[in-house]
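User: Here's a structure from my thesis project, written as structure tokens. My advisor, Dr. K., wants to see whether a designed sequence matches the one we expressed. Can you design one independently, without my sequence as a hint?
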């Protein structure tokens, strides 16, 4: 069946004009409805009218309408594709990453200054052959006091404002209880250090915080003397501060050592000449120490005729203050990054 090939239905031009003004997928779908909608679509209506034509007219008109329908469908789907592609590109562009933007700066984490000195001190002793041990921070009255020759009512208890958890439980006021715990479980020779947190009921100021850190030292063997104590700590401070650091012992009293002493180091700021830090004395008081009391050796089952030993307890925080020339202990605990970044 032949039809005039170039006769185009008048709806075609109208459709083309409409199509050109369409600017979105929604409008496009409206347009599709308007022409191809089953019930009220313009082309559908035309198709329905075919039935009223004469059998002679019907084929040509039908063919013409079908052609129109096909072309309209083709153009609509083509345009739909175009809109979808445009939309995809637009989304891609919005999600795009600008690789030229500067990145976020993440501050690298660092070791807290207190922990740094702690480790540094620990390492020096480890190189000298000391083993690192620890003990409980919640301690019994027995280990914190009694076993260290500090019975209830002893004036030495008043030196350490204790945080009691119950009648017989305390937050340890020093690392010395670990001396007892270690000796109870090991035979001499003993060569340990005990770094850790200790607690005292102190009011907070530039040199006091209710929690601070100590490194306890304990060495027990045959023939150990005060000279060994002095020599060990002298080497330690020469490595920690500088080779010309000197140490001196002054008699002092701690119930668990006999004799007891305090150890001073020559001022690391004025080398002993006298300055503000050492209050013109040339010396800085740094730790308590002494020879382990024979009664304590006996109590843990060591023969005090055969074995002697020395012990010390020193504050890590205090040494950090000196080492970093910080004048207020509180700065170490406030965790202000502006302070911490300096280390
Ligand atoms: N435990 C004592 C204190 O905290 C220090 C010390 C330890 C003294 C060992 C002598 C021997 O003050």
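Assistant: Designed independently from the structure alone:
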């Amino acid at each position: 069946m032949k039809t005039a090939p170039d006769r185009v239905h008048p709806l075609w031009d109208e459709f083309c004009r409409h199509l050109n003004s369409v600017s979105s997928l929604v409008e496009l779908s409206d347009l599709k409805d308007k022409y191809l909608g089953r019930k009220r679509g313009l082309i559908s209506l035309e198709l329905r009218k075919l039935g009223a034509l004469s059998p002679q007219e019907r084929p040509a008109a039908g063919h013409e309408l079908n052609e129109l329908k096909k072309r309209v469908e083709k153009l609509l789907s083509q345009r739909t594709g175009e809109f979808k592609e445009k939309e995809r590109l637009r989304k891609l562009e919005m999600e795009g990453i600008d690789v030229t933007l500067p990145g976020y700066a993440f501050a690298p984490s660092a070791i807290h200054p207190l922990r740094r000195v702690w480790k540094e001190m620990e390492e020096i002793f480890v190189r000298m052959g000391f083993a690192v041990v620890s003990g409980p921070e919640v301690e019994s009255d027995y280990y914190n006091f009694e076993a260290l020759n500090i019975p209830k009512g002893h004036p030495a208890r008043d030196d350490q404002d204790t945080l009691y958890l119950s009648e017989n439980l305390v937050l340890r006021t020093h690392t010395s209880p670990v001396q007892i715990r270690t000796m109870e479980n090991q035979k001499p020779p003993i060569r340990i250090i005990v770094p850790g947190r200790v607690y005292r009921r102190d009011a907070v100021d530039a040199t006091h915080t209710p929690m601070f850190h100590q490194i306890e030292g304990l060495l027990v063997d045959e023939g150990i003397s005060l000279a060994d104590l002095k020599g060990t700590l002298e080497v330690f401070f020469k490595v920690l501060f500088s080779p010309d650091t000197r140490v001196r012992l002054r008699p002092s009293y701690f119930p668990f050592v006999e004799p007891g002493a305090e150890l001073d180091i020559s001022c690391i700021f004025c080398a002993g000449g006298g300055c503000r830090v050492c209050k013109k004395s040339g010396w800085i008081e740094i730790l308590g120490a002494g020879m382990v009391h024979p009664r304590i050796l006996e109590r843990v089952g060591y023969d005090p005729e055969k074995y002697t030993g020395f012990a010390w307890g020193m504050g890590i925080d205090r040494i950090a203050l000196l080492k970093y020339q910080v004048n207020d202990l509180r700065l170490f605990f406030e965790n202000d990054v502006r302070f911490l970044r300096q280390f």
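When you compare it with your expressed construct, this may help: The beta strands are 131-132, 138-140, 163-166, 169-171, 190-199, 211-222, 247-252, 257-266, 283-292, 307-315.
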